[in-house]
Amino acid sequence: MKKIVLIIVVLILLALDLAALHDILKGEPDPYAEYGMLVVSVIVFGFLIVKWQTGKSSVKHHRNS
User: What is the dihedral of CA 16, 17, 22, 27, to 10 degrees?
Assistant: First the structure.
């Protein structure tokens, strides 16, 4: 169940990123919200990668014990 929620969150973030990039490339006159969305997305993806790596290393360490 956790993986399904995580996949849904990632897909939603990717869709929002694509929409923000489209607006930026289209020449949105006030692109601050789009840039903000991209920054928030990078932070969330960074958090998920760190969480995944620490979980992965703890499982690897647990298997060797």
Answer: 110
Name the phi and psi angles at 22, rounded to 5: -60, -45
DSSP string, 15-50: HHHHHHHHHHHHT-SSTHHHHHHHHHHHHHHHHHHH
Residue 62 scores a pLDDT above 80: no
Q: What is the pTM of this model?
A: 0.77
Q: What is the pLDDT of residues 33-59, one digit of tens each?
A: 999 999 999 999 999 999 989 887 776
pLDDT attached to residue 41: 96
Residues 15/21/24/28 CA torsion (nearest 10 deg): -20
Per-residue CA distances from 6 to 11, 30, 31, 49, 61 (Å): 9, 31, 28, 12, 24
